[in-house]
Prior knowledge:
Layout: H1 12-26, H2 31-50, H3 60-71, H4 76-95, H5 122-129, H6 137-152, H7 156-160, E1 167-168, E2 173-177, E3 183-187, H8 190-207, H9 227-240, H10 249-262, H11 267-274, H12 279-282, H13 284-300
Antiparallel strand pairs: 1-2, 2-3
Helix pairs in contact: 1-2, 2-4, 6-8, 6-10, 10-13
Amino acid sequence: MASNLPDSEVPMYNMADQFLHYLRIERGLADNTVEAYSRDLIRFLKYLEARNLVPQKLSRDQIGEYAAFLGKMLSARSVARNISAIKVFFRFLVSEDILKDSPARLLEGPKLSRKLPGVLSLREVERLLAQPDPADPIGQRDLAMIELLYATGLRVSELVNLKLSNIHLDPGYVRTLGKGSKERIVPLGVKAMEAVKAYLAGGRLRLRKNMNSPYLFLNFRGQRMSRQGFWKMIKKYGVLAGIKKQITPHSMRHSFASHLLEAGADLRSVQVMLGHADIATTQIYTHVSTKRLKELHEKYHPRP
């Protein structure tokens, strides 16, 4: 990529390459996370390049001007993500002795309201699980996927990337790789184990079409089920179940966490099962549970 920088300066795109290498190799971040950092950083470097600026000589005011520039074209959430990427980038430059201090150290992103995730009620989950046809290979697969998702709270990317070797039905747990390639073990419920066993004994044998795929969930071509394929499938069953709420693959993850907390599970255990690095991320589900308790109080208390 062409640059207008003087030869005496360290090329900023070289710094960017070093930073992304650091994220991928030393920090061990997932490819999707590194790609997000890369997109945000390239936007920032192109902004600097157009103004003949370099990271080594930026002032706090100039960083603030970039934040204001982002605010004119991006949502508050996107601005916050971009600013986060820039702050991490400058911390890296300081750690590499390219800079003595970060001009972005005091930069603050827009205040974001923490949106409560969409959660299904227990009855809605039961209606959703009643839709796949257990006598049909596709229905067996779909039922196993939804049961497994609700039983474990996996992310949809973790679900579709499960391999046969990740499922341990006798002891009753699933082993998965989450964000940053961090491995975790999540228990399986009886219903999920039964659905997976039925799928393995019937539906998967017919779907694999004599192909030896290592993946647990296959599409009708015998290949790994895609995220998009699962999204379309669960949306279809939501409509068939007459559920008015918008249903996404993440709805089952949110419902898993919320229902556990409502039943008395401790926050730390739910954090471990969800694979959250920070317990603050898990705490949003306590708000969902509190909202549910308030609804029950208003419905059943004699003097609401």
